[in-house]
């Protein structure tokens, strides 16, 4: 039965990674668009920067959770 719990935990981990990364990318996109329109006329520099920051935020959360899982700390609050 422990294998099923582990499989569900890993599935939840992967699902949570995609949701967190998508949401942070969307927030970065809209924040970047707003700041680009405010500061620059026709450039999308900050949009790309904030999207990349969103991707890295999702990856860092995935790595932290995977390391906790590897240590045996499955109980997240």
Explain briefly what this protein structure is.
With 77 residues, the protein is an all-alpha fold. The protein has helices at 2-39, 45-71.
Strand content: under 5%
Question: Mean of the pLDDT scores?
Answer: 83
* Share of helical residues: over 70%
Shape: elongated
Largest sheet: none
Structural class estimated from helices and strands: mainly alpha
Q: How many helical elements?
A: 2
The assembly state of the depicted protein chains is single chain
Number of strands: 0
Distance between the termini: 23 Å
Tell me the radius of gyration.
Answer: 17 Å
- H-E string: HH
Low-confidence stretches: none
Please indicate the count of domains: 1
Key structural traits:
77 residues
Structural write-up:
With 77 residues, this protein is mainly α. The protein has one domain. Helices cover 84% and strands 0% of the residues. The protein is built from two helices and no strands. It is elongated and about 55 Å long. The two termini are 23 Å apart.
């Amino acid at each position: 039965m422990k294998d099923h719990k582990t499989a569900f935990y890993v599935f939840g981990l992967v699902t949570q990674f995609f949701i967190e990364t998508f949401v942070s990318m969307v927030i970065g996109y809209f924040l970047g668009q707003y700041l680009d329109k405010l500061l620059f006329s026709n450039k999308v520099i900050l949009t790309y920067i904030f999207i990349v920051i969103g991707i890295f935020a999702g990856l860092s959360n995935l790595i932290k959770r995977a390391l906790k899982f590897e240590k045996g700390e499955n109980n997240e609050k």
